[in-house]
Specification:
A: mainly alpha, 15 helices, 69% helix, B: alpha/beta, six-stranded mixed sheet, globular
Amino acid sequence: MALLTGWAAFLVSVGTIGCIYGLLTLGLNVHYGYTGLLNFGHVAFFAAGAYASAIVTMPPPSEVTNASYQIWFNLPMPYAFPVSLAAAAVVGGALAFLIGLTSVRLGTHYLAIATFALAGVFSDVLVNEAWLTNGSFGMNSVPKPGRAMLSADVWQLSYLLFAAGSLLAVYLLLERLMNAPFGRLLKGVRESEAAAKTLGKDTNVVKLKSFVIGGMVAGFAGGVYAHYLGSVVTAQFIPAVTFTVYAGMLLGGAASNTGAVVGAFTVVAFRESTRFITTVYNWIQSTLPDALSGVLPTVFSPLPNNPSFIPSMRFVVIGVLFVLVIRYRPEGLFGDPSEIQALGEED
Amino acid sequence: MSTDQQRSTDGSASDGSATDDGTDLLEVDSVVKHFGGLVANDGVTFDVEEASITGLIGPNGAGKSTLFNCITGVYTPDDGAVRLDGEPIHGLSPTKVAKRGVGRTFQTPKTFRGMTVRENMAFAAREQTGERALGALFRPGTIREEEGDIQATVDETLEFLKLDHLADEYASGLSGGQRKLLELGRVLMMDPRIILLDEPVAGVNPSLTNELLARLEELNDRGRTILFIEHDMDVVMEHCDRVVVMHDGRTLAVGPPEIVQQDERVVEAYLGGGDR
């Protein structure tokens, strides 16, 4: 039974990660795109969801190496899977509620600082509270639902289908919400809080609701992520995740759910494509006539041999993508220019 | 009633309700508001009668906008009271004041720029089931019904304000005057008991000004109570049933325009120097 190889394996993995980032971006889009909340701590909700799923389903620490966590539920797979995902969404939403309760009154830029800082605090908590999170070792035995019944390839494909289905479901739910008067309410608060208040809307409650809904979606994404990788480690939940999600949202177009999904996939695909840089380099080198074979090594000589070159290119690629979007299409691929133009500035 | 009776001579107005026939909708009673050492409102007292158009005038810095903010909950008065239909509303949040039925516009219109005119209007409708997240998800039938009613009111109001041809334009594309009309329309959507307008015709071209004033008159004919700040004396004298003159944070005079106009202190404080 052959493992998925080459392009197929790459596409399946990019597709699954793309779905997870699609969920994250949909969540952030509720915050920033629809409500104008500058949330720079999105990764915290993602982490909260992932850890919630891990804690609900991890086996006892005695069966795991390097384990020191003291709370586990060891719910049996695959039946615990929906429970675990629900827990992820609830915990993500609960964290958003707590952070929102204290911060959501803040104006745009202050909220950005507060959420960024609180996400940092949350990350430190995850590292230090080993009784709950197993500290920096992480939770490395998160069960993969159905893995025991399926071959590796079939499981990979099935999980991709599941992730895509989840993405579609969340997308449809959010479309429904945002096309209802609820979406109009969020947008009005985004455009002018002062006006929304004088029209009888309780803007702090509206913002808190928005924060919790986006947090639940991000928490759910964390659950999907945890069961996909089978391991949850603090080092995965760094601020770069938040900024990748922002890149996806702005690329696709803020305040567009379709844009959020397309943007997330594009950014993930670009990011993952950096692993082909060496292949492309070697291919070009091999096709060049002998007379020119010295050109590439001369031009790029300091770069490809440096081990951190390829990983750091990930950020460069996203940066370039970002600059192109801001320069040529500030409203993003699916954004409405009349709507996005004024985003973030009050009348 | 005589203007003498209602004048507040020294800021500590003797009796805010020293008026008439018990149809006062809004009572502003000795409202005081300080900002540090600056006294913006120093015992402002007047009443607004139901179904009247009342003009609030005064030189720059007289405290008119501060008073609007005290009435609408943006500021909490340091002293005094604001009552709507006898119920105190000072100290309530802007949201709660609005829910009680006080609608207002801003000196510089605060329209929702990234939303269409229609969305701007529909936003302001009260008590929408679809504004609650669960309602939006699980009660599509109710929402469809409510939206039908809301959109009908929106169409009607836009037609009344002659903005119907702009219904699907983004508010960011509107002119300054059209934005003021839109803001008025939005306030009307919440069906307020009283409408407070902060310089509704300032910076609006003459033909649109006449349009706007005609709309206000018509709203008043339909029984709406209107209180507006305005600098244009001609507008105030022509369109108001009563005029409140403020100066240095106090009420200088209250009464019908033709009488207030002749009050020598008003002339001195505001109209003096051959202004008009």
